[in-house]
C-alpha cells in the first residue's frame, strides 16, 4: 500500500499535459483499413488508463450527447437535479469527478481535454512503500515499460512488437502484395484522445475510425 507523502501537492494546469505522441499506422490502401499501429509507451499507458476512469468522468469527458444509450440522458438529469434533494456535503461535481489516481503523462493529456475552462486543482503524490526508489509514481510511472515498442490492433488489442510478430500478422491478413500497404504517421493529442474514446464505445475498428476522421 502506498504511503502518503507529507502534503506534497502539485497544482494541475493544462500546460502540464504531455506533448503529442505519434502512432505509425500500417494501412491497407485497398480497403483503407488500419492493420495495426506501432505505438509508444505513452499511447499504451493512455489506453490502459481508460479502465481506471470512473463512468461519471468518462461521460464528462465525452459529453452526454456523444454517449450511446441512455447514459447521456441520465447525466443531464443529474445536472438538473435540485441540490435540495442531495445528501448534506454532496456536490454534483463529486459525482462526475471523483478523486482518482493518475499515472503517466498521457493521463494529464486526457485530463486536459476537459480541464481547459476549470481552475487549477491539486494532486497529492503517493510513494510506494514496497520499493526502494524515491520517485513518485504519479509523475512518470505509467503502466508499461518504456524500452519496448508496442503493436496496437485496430480493436485496441495491445501486444509487444517484434519482427516475427509483424510478419505473422501481415500473413494473417492475407496480404499478397506488399505494395498495397502504406505507412502513415498520426499525431495523437487531445483531440485524437477524445475521438478514440468515442470510437471505442461504438466500433471495433477504432484506429481505422480515428484515421478517417483525421483525413
Automatic annotation (TrEMBL):
This is Uncharacterized protein.
Amino acid at each position: 500500500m502506498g504511503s502518503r507523502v507529507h502534503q506534497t501537492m502539485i497544482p494541475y494546469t493544462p500546460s502540464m499535459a504531455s506533448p503529442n505522441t505519434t502512432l505509425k499506422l500500417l494501412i491497407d490502401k485497398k480497403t483503407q483499413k488500419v492493420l495495426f499501429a506501432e505505438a509508444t509507451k505513452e499511447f499504451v499507458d493512455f489506453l490502459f488508463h481508460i479502465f481506471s476512469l470512473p463512468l461519471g468522468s468518462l461521460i464528462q469527458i465525452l459529453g452526454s450527447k456523444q454517449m450511446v444509450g441512455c447514459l447521456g440522458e441520465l447525466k443531464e438529469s443529474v445536472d438538473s437535479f435540485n441540490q435540495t434533494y442531495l445528501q448534506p456535503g454532496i456536490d454534483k461535481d463529486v459525482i462526475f469527478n471523483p478523486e482518482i489516481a493518475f499515472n503517466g503523462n498521457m493521463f494529464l493529456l486526457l485530463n486536459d481535454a476537459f480541464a481547459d475552462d476549470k481552475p487549477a486543482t491539486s494532486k497529492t503524490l503517493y510513494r510506494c512503500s514496497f520499493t526502494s526508489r524515491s520517485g513518485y509514481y504519479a509523475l512518470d510511472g505509467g503502466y508499461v515499460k518504456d524500452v519496448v515498442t508496442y503493436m496496437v490492433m485496430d480493436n485496441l488489442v495491445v501486444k509487444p512488437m517484434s519482427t516475427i510478430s509483424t510478419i505473422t500478422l501481415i500473413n494473417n491478413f492475407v496480404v499478397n502484395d506488399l505494395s498495397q500497404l502504406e505507412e502513415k504517421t498520426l499525431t495523437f493529442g487531445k483531440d485524437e484522445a477524445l475521438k478514440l474514446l468515442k470510437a471505442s464505445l461504438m466500433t471495433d475498428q477504432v484506429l481505422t475510425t480515428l484515421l478517417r476522421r483525421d483525413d
